[in-house]
Design a protein that fits this description.
The chain has 13 helices and 16 strands. It has 454 residues and is of the alpha/beta class. Bound molecules: adenosine-5'-diphosphate, aspartic acid and magnesium ion (MG). Keywords: Amino-acid biosynthesis, ATP-binding, Kinase, Nucleotide-binding, Transferase.
């Protein structure tokens, strides 16, 4: 029986007409039924700049960004010789971009809601172009299937947490059945957008930066896909970011648990939430390069054949360490509860935590500092100290918390680097610690040499 495959292509895979045609060719050869696309490379950043510029600068400055985005898409449209109906759809999106920017400019207010509407245009524009690329590839292969553009927002229902909206799985399943039930006939290749969704009230949302991977996984879950493919600019998940260590090796196979830790702790190749839907429905995930589709790539599965002690490493930059101290914690209970309640009220998630008798240290993304109310609330119950410019380094593998001597090997390798905090024990797949940002690359390079290259 044919397999239902959902394939996601990232921004660089949508870079220009050639990239789009190459990606469509990959989707064709894989037998994909659903192609989920990111905005063309750089466009989401440009749209954010447009929102901010329209809010705070002159209209002519905003117009410059509009022209840049417009030109990029018009060039691809002309290279692909876009048919009239798709050209019209693209024009409508250009008009929407200009109207939204004008509204933001007149009000001098770019709310998160407005920003989501503006950012959604990146994926909506690229999907129009990619629909034509897909149609051309199907024609070239004399394939009777048709390429169909679908608005992901009709299916991807979210809450109203603009900028980082949460998909509502139950609704998405029902909406997938309603709008995408025909996929199992295998007569259509749907092209749709990653990253964007819609609230029940009809407002456009986004899932947070890099969210197209997550969208593809959510949609794969919604249509009960057999395989989810993430096509990017590297040939799979590597032992660490190849930009940090050129000797990073592609991983053939990795378990859901390890890959989830890797994504959560900073490996940009997968959005942190991507594997949650895949785990829920046990959908195997393939990660490969749209530029080199023949390369082996990585399979992420529930069960794999080997479980090495150290499989990979990652880093998460821009971390802060917040230390809360109060003598009242001595022999008292309920303090952790109070702290977590405050973080919960502010919807801030903590990555690593250590405690002593009278203090608790937690690591957070540095953007948390923008939330002055959070720091003020914490200050009401404890003395608060914040250290900035830190990086969380993680070693990912198996049986990490039951292996004698591992800590010694790690810290011998970086004996001259100050380790600000260590977290070990909670997960058998992860050993993480904090170092200063300017020593983070060196730390990863040395550990990679010791545990992977050796
Ligand atoms: P896309 O636009 O396709 O979503 P991203 O830029 O978000 O692509 O993710 C791919 C990038 O992730 C790679 O170019 C690479 O630099 C980075 N990366 C970080 N860690 C890893 C890793 N362990 N393996 C592979 N790539 C990684
Ligand atoms: N276009 C969005 C971003 O740049 C989503 C994605 O590419 O995954 O963050
Ligand atoms: Mg990405």
């Amino acid at each position: 029986m044919a397999k239902l495959i959902v394939s996601k292509f990232g921004g660089t895979s949508m870079g220009d007409a050639e990239c789009m045609l190459r990606s469509a060719e990959v989707a064709y050869r894989q037998g994909s039924s659903m192609v989920v696309v990111s905005a063309t490379s750089g466009t989401t950043n440009d749209l954010i700049a447009l929102g901010k510029t329209a809010e705070s600068q002159s209209w002519s400055e905003a117009e410059k960004i509009i022209s840049k985005i417009h030109a990029r898409h018009v060039k691809i449209a002309s290279d692909l010789n876009l048919p009239t109906d798709l050209l019209q759809a693209l024009e409508t999106l250009f008009e929407e971009m200009a109207s939204l920017a004008k509204g933001i400019h007149l009000l001098k207010d770019c709310s998160v809601k407005a920003m989501d509407a503006l950012m959604s245009l990146g994926e909506r524009m690229s999907s129009v172009l990619c629909t034509e690329a897909m149609a051309q590839v199907l024609r070239k292969h004399k394939d009777a299937k048709s390429a169909k553009l679908v608005d992901a927002r009709d299916v991807l229902r979210t809450d109203d947490a603009f900028g980082k909206a949460k998909p509502i799985t139950k609704d998405i399943e029902a909406l997938s059945n309603k709008h995408l039930g025909y996929l199992r006939d295998f007569k259509t290749v749907v092209v749709t957008q990653g990253y964007i969704g819609r609230t029940e009230e009809g407002m456009t949302t986004t899932l947070g930066r890099g969210g197209s991977d997550y969208s593809a996984a959510i949609l794969a879950e919604g249509v009960s896909a057999d395989v989810l493919e993430i096509w990017t600019d590297v040939a799979g998940i590597a032992t660490t970011d190849p930009r940090i260590c050129p000797k990073a090796k592609p991983i053939d196979e990795i378990s859901f648990k390890e890959a989830s830790e890797l994504a959560t702790f900073g490996a940009k190749v997968l959005h942190p939430a991507t594997l949650l839907p895949a785990i829920r429905k046990n959908i195997p995930v393939f990660v490969g390069s749209s530029f080199d589709a023949e390369a082996r790539g990585t399979w992420v599965r529930k069960e794999v054949t080997d479980y090495p002690l150290i499989r990979a490493m990652a880093m998460r930059k821009k971390q802060i360490l917040v230390t809360l101290s109060t003598p009242e914690m001595l022999h008292a209970h309920g303090f952790l509860f109070q702290i977590f309640k405050i973080f919960n009220d502010h919807k801030v998630s903590i990555d690593a935590i250590t405690t002593s008798e009278i203090s608790v240290s937690v690591t957070l993304d540095d953007s948390t500092l923008l939330n002055k109310r959070l720091i003020a609330d914490l200050s009401e119950i404890a003395d608060v100290q914040v250290e900035e410019n830190l990086t969380l380094i993680s070693l990912i593998g198996n049986n990490i918390n039951h292996t004698p001597g591992l800590g010694k090997q790690i810290f011998e390798t970086i004996a001259d680097i100050n380790v600000r905090m260590i977290c070990l024990g909670a997960s058998k797949h992860n050993f993480c610690f904090l170092v200063s940002e300017d020593q983070s690359t060196e730390t990863i390079q040395r550990l990679h040499k010791k545990f992977v290259e050796a």
